[in-house]
Amino acid sequence: MERRAPISLTVAAERLGVHYMTAYRYVRTGRLPATRDGVQWRVDPVDIDRWLSETPPPASRGSRAGARHRLEHRMVAGDVVGAWSIIERTLASGATPAEIYLELLIPSLRSIGGRWATGALSIVDEHRASVTAQRLIGRLGPRFLHHGRTRGTVVIGAPSGDLHALPSAIMSDLLRDLRFTVVDLGAGAPPGTFVDATRDVSRLLAVCVGVSGGGCDDAIAATVAAVKEAGVAAPVLVGGGGVADADHARRLGADGWTGADARTALAAIEATAPRPRPPRPRPPRPRT
Q1: For the chain, what is the domain count?
Q2: In what order do the strands lie in the sheet with 7-8?
Q3: 275 in a domain, yes or no?
Q4: Domain ends where: 143, 163, 195?
Q5: What is d(CA 227, CA 233) in angstroms, rounded to the nearest whole number?
């Protein structure tokens, strides 16, 4: 049989039907053999053929649900190593970092919070899980960074009185994955901090105030008012579990509501970004 020349990892990813970074994870974890050629990875087409014939399809929603339950168990136990191994296996099966957040980590945090609220978990369990989540976000964060020009800047954070920093950290990574520059103010940011963060940034698109629970209406309204009084032209959006609906957001003085979950928030923020211009058609080459 004639030996075929090695192919680049980009071509290998196309033949496998996965994103380049997914193929890279296969190589890094040893699942797909590859060799270095300078700064490039090269893959033997025979190994691609073997992969396609032997490897089962990417994990289904059902298997992701199982991973989600295992992750929640490891987070409550404070087992960072075990939790990360579940995430790595899910990434290697074809999940994107954004899917890890949206399908595993966020649902786990929501379930843990609900179990704590009903007394099924202790405050120690809840804190252990939160610290584990912080460690996981720290390891996942660099995977959301992209090179090149961004679509604009978003300022995001929780107002005074809201001590939950995880939601804005997760949203910041998801926004960076969509090629936004993000200024993440974390938890308990006073109104003046939001105002200061809007200064000297490139192409400010939105200021987002997120709250995880009730009781922060005064702080939200004060933050919205301060940003508007400072003359910030970008829309001020509010959302999270502490803002019930669009009418509630308007009563707080906001320009819009991001909804109660990450997906609706991403859609609301994306709506503030200008639509990319379609590429200009290239003029036909003159015939010679």
Answers
A1: 3
A2: 7-8, 40-43, 35-37
A3: no
A4: 143
A5: 9
Could you tell me if 162 and 255 lie in one domain? yes
Number of Cβ within a 10 Å radius of residue 58: 15
Q: Which amino acid is at 210?
A: G
Half-sphere exposure of 98 toward its Cβ, with a 13 Å CA cutoff? 15
Q: Which amino acid is at 153?
A: T
pTM of the model: 0.74
pLDDT in tens, 201-246: 989 999 999 998 888 999 999 999 999 999 999 999 999 999 999 9
Per-residue b or e along 223-238, where b marks 16 or more CB atoms closer than 10 Å to that residue's CB: bbebbbeeebebbbbb
Q: Which domain holds residue 119?
A: 61-143
